[in-house]
Amino acid sequence: MDIDFFDDDNSDLMAYDDDGQYNDMQFGLDGQYNELNFDSYSMFGFHNAADIPLSQEVYFGGESRGQYNRHNDRYGLKEEPSHYSVEIKEEPEAGYSYVPKPIMDVYKQPIPPPKAPSIESDIVIEVQPPVEVRTRTPMCKAVGGWRAQGATLMGVSLWYAQTEALAAEAVNKDILGGTKTAPILPDGGVTFDSLSISESSTKHKEREFFLQLTLLRNDGHELLHKRTRPFYAYSHKKVLQRRGSVKLRTLSKPWGRLSGREQMHVIGGPFIQGPALALIIRTPYGDVYARPLEYYSDSVIFFELPACPVNDPNVLVGQSEVKGQVMLTNDGRTFSNPLDFSYLPDNYGGDT
């Protein structure tokens, strides 16, 4: 068996497509090749590599050209057509009639794209508690594809939020009321809309809380945890007004040295002692926090002046001062009015 390439007067080769039309098959006339990967030389009737000429270039359907070299017994590959056709004939033996075989179509099946991973291992919190919550109903709603993991229930618990100085930890006191375990609905949703907190953040040293959601199986095994954003619990709006209406009146002095390390104090109020209380000095080179703060009263706070936040001392060459502003916050979200402040060179010895 061999491949019959039909030759015309111009010494071009032709191969029939499945529609009965033929396409010229030229042997390297333009010198530009798109290599075609032949899955097997036996597919085209060659019994072994020795049956193929030493170096033969074949042009299929006006699209691709390949070259086979039996010294290395492999085919180069740059681009493969999705479909091509060849006609295969058998030479009849003496005394027998010849019946040609039908045209054989060869299809290259495309490789399907990889499937995206199934997102079933996370809890998506659709409704977060507000950042400031009355001691009643911090509603929370979550969704997810958890049934495949064997989850049937979701539980909720109350935790203290993490601060700069304190790690997150569970609230030991039972102050979270309402339905704290709910079944997972067929659509994957869980809603906690009857929760209540019996104590405000004021009774917990002004610490904020968060809800921790826990995915559960019927046997109580915990599969996954997810935290809501932190929130401040209050019992009356006057508490929020006092917390957010902080004002500064004066600084012990309106300047300090670039290297910092000076003891100062600020007067104003109302200052609320809690983990979110912070004093910030804002400069053209960035903000810097004064730490630690010494809470003297709700109207006086002592602090150590931090160094000016300049990484490159050459930036300050020729400058007599760096102007900035001092601000204070009780909750980390609402800031006081700014007071003007200046950083002066370390060798400055006078008063301003």
Brief synopsis:
With about 350 residues, the chain is an all-beta fold. Helix content is about 0%, strand content about 40%.
Keywords:
1 helix; disordered N terminus; elongated; mainly beta; single chain; 5-stranded mixed sheet; Immunoglobulin-like; 3 domains
Q: With helices defined by DSSP (H or I, 4 residues minimum), what is the helix count?
A: 1
Q: Which CATH top level class of the largest domain fits?
A: Mainly Beta
As for the CATH topology of the largest domain, it is: Immunoglobulin-like
Largest sheet: 5 strands, antiparallel
Overall mean confidence score, pLDDT: 73
The end-to-end distance, rounded to whole angstroms, is 106 Å
Which secondary-structure class do the elements indicate?
A: mainly beta
Q: How would you name the CATH homologous superfamily of the largest domain?
A: Velvet domain
List low-confidence stretches.
1-47, 49-120
- What's the total count of β strands? 31
Rg, rounded, reads: 40 Å
State the domain count. 3
CATH architecture of the largest domain: Sandwich
The level of helicity is under 10%
The gross shape turns out to be: elongated
